[in-house]
Design goal:
With about 325 residues, the chain is α/β, with parallel strands linked by helices. Helices cover about 40% and strands about 10% of the residues. The chain has a single domain, classed as NADP-dependent oxidoreductase domain (TIM Barrel). The longest helix is centred in the C-terminal third of the chain and has 14 residues.
Length: about 325
């Protein structure tokens, strides 16, 4: 396998901030303990498993974690901070990104809820605070002003958005620019099976504005691992929300999975490792990814993807096979 050692993993700047992150971070929606609406997507994880996952990715060189207020209403944040402290990982050694949940709220709640975010994270710095969706009652400008106030008061380090269109990105960027701050990132759905950012203007806007694109669901909830193609019966054990989505993906993704498996065999890795490596390298340094992990083996694969370097022909093959996948479901931008 053509890999680099984890100790030598190059970091990337988060947008135009001074924050440095590895090309792959850890998404932590699965840490929400399977409560409330989250139970339709993930089952609860044992705290010991959560701790092992966090330690595995950190020891492997991954330096940042993405969570959110809306992931179990603080449960994911608390589980993450508990796992970090339990592993003896210091605040200065990690980058934490979280999100404000805007649905049915005004920008004022950004200021009012920051103490709760900090409390759930138990002393770990909020390096990136993001607006989770463009669904607030307040204008984008008001939301960015509230976020800028938090930066100015030292409560967060930088500002990002999530699921924003290109037009909304530009408005948010302009609002923060008036406050002397950059818009660091936009977190959107991107994968080999969803390249919508290339047609929607989101990728173009990110490059123009110097922003990072954070790819959520980079493995399409497990579709790109190939395991559901090999054994569709596995779908029956998944929560209903994921089961519905996964069934839709299997037939249309068969050729991509076949290519992933062939390339993976050549490198002695799994299809997931290949899919992640392609994603964080195909777009230069603009796109980073936050795959989740519900098992330690998943965490190990995330780490392995940091070191895998695909050949030019392998990159081109996957590009050609996946180019038609612009949007499979109406998420995000």
């Amino acid at each position: 396998m053509n890999t680099d050692s984890s100790a030598g993993i190059p970091k990337r700047r988060l947008g135009r901030t001074d924050i440095e992150i590895t090309p792959i971070g850890l998404g932590t929606w699965q840490f929400a303990e399977g409560k409330g609406i989250d139970r339709f997507m993930y089952k609860g994880l044992d705290p010991e498993v959560t701790g092992e996952i966090v330690k595995t990715v950190f020891d492997g060189g991954i330096n940042w974690f993405d969570t959110a207020e809306g992931y179990g209403w603080g449960r994911s944040e608390r589980a993450l901070s508990s796992a970090l402290s339990g592993a003896g990982i210091a605040d200065e050694d990690v980058v934490i990104a979280t999100k404000w949940f805007p649905l049915g709220r005004t920008a004022e709640s950004i200021r009012k809820t920051i103490h709760k975010r900090k409390s759930c994270l138990e002393g770990y710095t909020i390096s990136l605070h993001q607006v989770h969706q463009p669904t607030s009652f307040s204008s984008i400008e008001a939301q960015m002003d509230a976020m800028a106030d938090l930066v100015d008061s030292g409560q967060i380090r930088s500002v990002g958005v999530s699921n924003f269109s290109a037009g909304r990105m530009r408005r948010a960027h302009a609002a923060l620019k008036r406050r002397g701050l950059p818009l660091a990132s936009n977190q959107v759905k991107v994968s080999l099976l969803d390249r919508h950012i290339e047609k929607s203007g989101v990728l173009e806007a990110a490059k123009e504005l110097g922003m990072t694109i954070i790819a959520w669901s980079p493995l399409e909830m497990g579709v790109l691992t190939g395991k559901f193609h090999k054994d569709p019966g596995l779908l029956g054990s998944r929560p209903i929300g994921r089961r519905f989505y996964l069934r839709r993906q299997l037939k249309r993704s068969a050729r991509v999975i076949e290519a992933l498996e062939e390339i993976a065999d050549a490198h002695g890795v799994t299809p997931a490792v290949v899919a992640l490596s392609w994603l964080v390298n195909f777009y230069g340094e603009t796109v980073v990814a936050i795959p989740g992990a519900t098992k330690v083996s998943h965490a190990e694969q995330n780490v392995m993807a940091l070191g895998l370097r695909l050949s030019e022909s392998e990159m081109e093959r996957l590009d050609e096979l996946s180019r038609k996948f612009q949007r499979l479901i109406p998420f995000g931008t």
